[in-house]
Every structure is written in structure tokens, then in C-alpha cells.
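#struct-pred

JT: dropping the chains for the assembly here, can someone run the whole complex?
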Amino acid sequence: MNDHPPRVLVIDDLFGRRTSHQRNPERATLCGQLLLRDITDDQPALSRPQVIRQPLAEAVFFRGQKPLTAEVGDVIENDLEGCLRFVRTGWSERLSGVPPWALVLLDLCFYTGRVTAASSERFAGMPEGRPQDDEPDSYFGLRILDAVRLEMPDLPVVILSSKPREPIARSIAARGALGFIARGEGDARERLTEYLSRHGLISDTTDKIVGYSIPVLKALRSARRAAASPRHVLLQGEPGVGKELLAEYLHASTANAGNRPWVVVDSGTLSPELFASELFGHRKGAFTNAVADREGRVSQAHGGDLFLDEIGNMPLDVQAGLLRVFQTGHVVPVGADRGKDVEVRVFSATNADVEGKALLGQFRSDLLDRMRSGGTITLPPLRERREDIPLLANRFLTDTLRENKRALIREISPEAMDALVAHEWPGNVRALESCVRKAVASHPDVEYLFPLHFDLPGTRLVHPAAKTWPQVAPLEDEHTYDATSTLIEELARILDNPQMAVLPAPVLSGLLPKLERAYARLTARLLKSALHATSRPTPSEPRGEVLIQPAMKLLAGDQNLTASRAADWIKRLLNLAPEEIDDLLEDRLLQEAYRRALKLRPKGPRVDPGSEQ
Amino acid sequence: MRRTNPDVEWQRQRSFLNHDWLKNCYLPALDTWLNILEGAVEDPDFEEFFVNNRLREWPTHRPLLDSLLLSFENKMSPLVWFDQEPLSQLSSETKAWLRPLIHGLWCVRVKARGLLDETTSRLGECDERYSHLIRVIEAQDRTDSTSLAAYCREFGEFGNACRALAKTLSQFPNRIEAV
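RK: done, full complex below.
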């Protein structure tokens, strides 16, 4: 179960501003009001932090102006480019395996000008404002909206403002904003809930449909919208893309799903003779093998949902019978004179060109129209959502290992993952799953799965033993990688070995754990230095308060590094060699950094935070 | 001071009271407090601040709201243009009949009397709810579930009264309207 709440970006001068040495009280109030968990990590840690028990979303706050932290005397200016850069970090430039912004909550009025003692007394770090800031026609929020919609048209934006909606309603709708949440209204939380469900790009919380790519999240959103209606839905997509899973998601997203029947008919496996009987049922003696009355699938689904897979194979006479059910809400079993009324919502799935078939008279167009009265949802092929392949491959690997508890713990090497991502996957997700399972089953003693272990066209499967490797001498101090030698020496010894390039795979595999451990300790030491350099003494922590974002900015040389990404990096760096982590966490700085990273990012990411898409 | 329109002091004052204080601070804080009472949020720092400071801001801001209403006609009527060029050049005789006419037309156009009456009524409701709420707070034990439900209800009703006030304050004109 994926219980990670969706992540929203809040662009707002008041809530996004940073205040030096204290938390932003207005932001905390907003989070408490809307049930948002603040994961921005741009404020000092509190001894008694705010806890949102069941957050609607995780929120990252951004001021949209510079400087982000202002004192009396500073001049605040709007920063459109900075805004766009920040939005991209959770969209086009987000890390692999990290979900995109589910929604952007955008303020309208951004106050600029000089921060005075008076203005700062009211709201610390806020400027006194300029006349044009408050003119609806020149709201900076509208400029941000235009720029975001132009560059990232799929990113849903909702206005969050305490300004009156009426003067600006037409303008924001014309610009593509999907809604308006009035901060002073009592239904602000309910509105946010509704907008998240209706417009948000949210992953499948049941974790059946794995992926954070935009095409998949859009399909899930379409499904949630369709689930709110009693009308029938057509699901399209290539074989193996997961149409049945999407149908299950549709069913599960329906109100009162637990009490609704869910019936599946795989039309592809039915012979033409059995089709009508399977769908509508039959009476005893209706045909040779009808030895007893049998209830059909349509009747079984009464009051619920019926999933018809592979409808492209449906015989024309069955199509006529199904059309009658759609038209009359009445189903008559084969061989019966009378039937019964049914109330069924049908999700039909096909990978065939049913519209083309309808034009050729091979599929009834009137039936097709009924089948898609609630809309058509298309699931993308895997090659159009390559960013999901690492998530999917690791998920299938985990599933396979879970099913076989005695199997070795495996890991897909980065090279193999690259090969999987680059593959075209004509068989889509189903083929990827089969490929991963086959690799595990075929190589029971291989801990790290490399490209040669996967049966991909273009990848030669060569067993290491079948190849004659050059004879190489073992490293002189193969067993002496211990704490007595310096880390740099360890790394240099391994990496500088001129024989590395020709070492056979088994020898290389033997070196890997040592290399990983040495690398992990070196990285931890660098991290510790960065944490030490950026820590700040406070009354409660005179030895220096640990600040993970500044430390990772220093270490990564990236001033734009977000708090979430910093947390991901910390987790990644300290998990480079899992067997070392207990030793590393003996250190106060590393322990505190790890604790903060886990608090900020308890789940994700599942893959390397450094691999940009 | 944040401002809506620096040329019009009344707008600044309204923006401070309605936008900055009521909508951005007071109402969200009431909602957050209700979420805390319902167990959805835990925030010890906020709790202390709300109970001891934020909630008690109503009586301190109340006179400012009164003053805002009292100054509305003087500050937002086009009469202010008679003190500026070119209307200031009009003869006393002309001003004597034109000023009340302009003001009367403006009052009708912006429904000034109705707005003021409605806002005064909303303020009265807020006062009443606030007083009742404070009495309940002082009298009740929050650890008792029945009392807690009543306590939440009182906060909810005070919040609704404040929201209605905020909505009415938003209906006042944003600039000096010509007639």
C-alpha cells in the first residue's frame, strides 16, 4: 500500500517566505487549516513540531520572490524565472522515481518593495507593498500562471487566495487555472480535497498501477473522474499495459466500492458459442451441455461493475444482446422467455481498433457509443513512460523475491537498468514483468543482475564460465581493506589496479562489496564535513544544529537543491553500503542528518536521487 | 504596512483588517484550532499562541472595524474630489447644491446604507458569538467529550460569523466610484 500523500507546491509570498531563526507562523496555520504536511525544510527544527495526522497532501512552499529570507531594509522583488526554475524541480527536472507536483496552489497578490520596521512587525520579512501589487489586472500570480501554463500545460494549477474571486474569476479561468480556494472560506479544506481528486496528478495509493510518469498519472486522474459517474467507460491500450488494473482502480475509486459487485469477463478466452451463455446466463436444456440453470456475468454484476476484456473479439450476435442490455437494462438468459432488470456499469477494454472495426461493420457502432458514454481512457505503452521502468522493474524484482523467500537478495545493476529503460517493450508492462522474473529464475546464484542476465533482444546472454578469461593475479592486499588503511588509499588501490579492465566478472563481483564499503565510508566522511561546516549553534544545541539542506547544497555544489532532494541524497549516501549504516550512525551529525532526512522523506525516492530524467 | 491603494487610506485600512488579519490570520487560525480539537492536528506552539493571543484579538480589532465603517462615507465618497482641482474651483453656491447631490447619487449607486447596515449587523453577530464563546471557554472542561463537542460548536459558529463579516467587508467598493 502506498500511503504517501500527494505533493503540492504552494507559491505564495506570505506562506512561502522564510523567517530567520523562527518558523513562519502563517504557514503553520495554513497547514493546520488545510491539513498539509510541510516538507519544505527551510526552517529551524522545532522541539515540538506540528503533526498532521492524516495529511491531505505534503506541501513544499516557495515565496516566488527574492530574496527568500528578508530583513528590515531589504527590497523584495518578484522573481518569475526563479519561480519557473523551482516549479521545474518537481516537474520536468525532477529526480527519477520521484512523483511530480500533484497540484500547484498559486497566490494572486505578491507584495513587493522595501521591508520596513512597520511592515515586518505585522508579518516578519514582508515588504510594505507597491500600488500595482494589489491591482487585479497586474497580479504577479497571473504572470506565474501564464508562464507555467505555457511551459508546463499538463501541470494543474489552482488559485489559493484571500482576494475576492469575482473580479478575477473569468480571467483565471481563461488562463487555465482549474479552481479557486478562498482562504477565508470555511470550505477551503473540502475544496482542496475535491481539487486534488479531480485535477491532481496522484499515483495509485493501492500501488497496483506503479508509476509516476505524467501519462500514467493523467490516466489515473481520468479514471477517478469517470468513477464519479454511473456511465460506461472504454479502456484502450496496447496488450500488456494494464487495462484490467486500471478497471480495478476505476472500481475502487467509486463511492461505496466495497459493497459493489466486481465481475470480470475475459472475452478473449471465450469461444463464440459460449460467449452469450457466459454473459447472459442460460436455462437448463438451452443447448447440449446446459445441464442446469446458470446465472450470467451481467446478472452477477447487478448493482456494480462489469469488466469486459478484449471486446474486439465479441461475436456480432452477442454484441446485439449486449446492446439490448445497455438499452433496456434487462438481461434475458439463453433459452429463457423472460429475464430480469439489471443495473450495471460496464468497463470495456480493447487493444483493437474498434472504431476501424465499426467502420467495417465488424463491431456495432451503436454498441461502441454506449460503451464509451462515460468516456475513453487510454493507457500509454511502456515506451512512452520509460521513467517508470526502474520503479516497475524493482517492484517485480521485490515481488519475485517475496514469493521465493529462500532466494538470494538481488539487485538490478545500473547498467542493466539502463538496458531495461532503453528497450522498446512491445509487450509492455507484462513483458517487463516476465523478463525480470525470468532473469531471477534463470540465474539463481547471481546477486547483481547485469544486462547479460536479461533476455533482451540485442543483449547477448553469455555465462561467465563459458568464456575464457585472462589469468590475473589477485590483488595483493585483497583481504586488507580495513579501518587501518585510509579510505582514499583503499579506493585508489582498487580503482588504479591496471587489471580491472580485464578482470573476469566473478572477480569483479568479489571486489564490489569492498569498493562499495570504502566508497560509503568516504562519502559519509564528506557528508559529515559538510554537516559540520553548515551547522549552527543554538541555545538548545550549542554543538551546532544539523541543517541537511545547506550541507547538501555545499556537498553537491547546487544552490537550487531542494530540501526534499537533499533528504533523498542523505538517505542515498548513508545507504550506499547498508551493512555499514549502523557504524556510520554512531556519529551524532550523521545520525541527526539521517533522522531529519527520514522525517522529511519517509518513503521516497526508490532510486538514485541524482539520476536526472 | 501592506496596502491596497496608497492613495486611499480607507482601502489600506480595510485591506489590513479584512485581508491581512481576518482572512489570512484569524479565520485560518480558527479552522486550525478546530482541527486541533478534533485531533487531526497536533501543534503545541500554535495552541499556546492561539489561546493566549490570536483568539483574544477580536476585542482589540473590533474598534478598528468600527472606525473603518464610520469613515467609509467620508473617505470613499466622490465628495473628496471637491477638495481637489478642478472641482475645488467651483463656486460656493454650486458646491452647496452639487455636493449633497453627488453624495446622494453615490450612496444609491454603491448601496452604501445597505452595506453599512449589513456590516454593522455582522459585527454584532460576531460580538455576540465571541462573548458566548469566551463564557463557554471559561465555564467548560475540555476533557469532557460532551463539553468538547459544545466547545467545537461554539468555535464553529464564531468562525461562521467572522466569515460572513469578511464576505460583507469584501463587498465595499475598491475605489472611489464616479456617479
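JT: nice. Chain A touches chain B at residues 14, 23, 25-26, 28-30, 32-33, 35, 46, 48, 50-54, 111, 116, 118-119, 122-123, 126-129, 131, 134, 162-164, 167, 182-186, 188-189 (CB under 8 Å). DSSP finds 23 helices and 21 strands in chain A.
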